[in-house]
Amino acid sequence: MSLMPAPSAMSDRRDKLRRQIKQEGLDALLVTNFVNVTYLTGFTGDDSYLLVTPTGDLLISDQRYSTQLEEECPGLELAIRGPGSKMLEFTAKALERARPRRLGIEADSMTVALRNALAEALPKIELVATSGWVEELRLIKDKEEIQRTRRACELARRAFDVVRAKLTPEMTEQQVSNELEYQARQFGAKGVSFETIVAVGPRAALPHARPTGRHIGASDFTLIDWGVNEGLYMSDLTRVLATAKISPKLRKLYGVVLKSQLAGIDAVRPGATCEEVDQAARRVIDDAGYGKHFGHGLGHGIGLEIHEAPRLAQGQQRALKPGMIVTVEPGIYFPDWGGIRIEDDVLVTRAGHEVLSSVPKELDECLVG
Ligand code: ZN
Ligand code: ZN
User: Fold this and answer.
1) Checking DSSP bridges between strand 78-81 and strand 56-62, what pairing results, if any?
2) Which of 20, 59, 83, 349 lies at a C-alpha separation of 20 to 30 Å from 296?
């Protein structure tokens, strides 16, 4: 499989944006968020902007990327600045040539410094703040993006299977984390989606625990939250492994979280609001009496970034649509004891949903030593 999505998918995305630019009465949009530039062009480097106009596109980049640009976005019109040229001045010149009267800028990511400098260099161009245009397109994944996410889930599973089989009580959180990343890369991943969380016992109460020198054998369970980047797209999973005889408390809490997670997954379907899905899972934990121990939203979108829209949380009225991919990850946390979280990646389909990640989640005594 080639690393880059088909150029036609990219030009379709830019055409959608072109229609929006017209509808909103703008003459062009300057895309400065690098992830958005990647989404629209396939270019994976940074320090580059994309100018989208009604008649074409211009990728503004620099010489270091010349070869990569040829490989990743053949056919795209380029403006390449040399070593002596400054990004701001070069961008201003490109804009001067394009002559938009009303230029959309990405207000969520453009720095105030860049905005002010552009305004000063181009007094005749009106800068119009836009928000979330490209992010809105990114919400709905196409076939290829779904395929890539599937692969990211598969790579995460294969790496986890190997690590799970190798666990010993002497291993530290850090070693397990390193091993997961190493195995993922061996299977072909570009890397991990984020620093792997390996949290033994009470450390699992921290939703974003960083791995330490604590040994797996120091408690009777370990929480692992990991994901893989297959080149562009991310996966994000969490499992809890029992590393000794399962205590009644662990069994009980795990059962509640699993039931909650299954209820959340079951609620994922087109038309359901993000809040409703959160509520379906939250209700199970509330009913079991642990509501105040579930202190975060149920899930988030994944894609080119590990956290993107939509958010499954209270107050989120957005309705799910086919092609969205979200995590479903309820948890129960006790500061002195630890935390249980179970996380899978779920695709919204026309008929309802499909769970893309396939790591077993029955609570088994696994291993060790
Ligand atoms: Zn996670
Ligand atoms: Zn997550």
Assistant:
1) parallel
2) 349
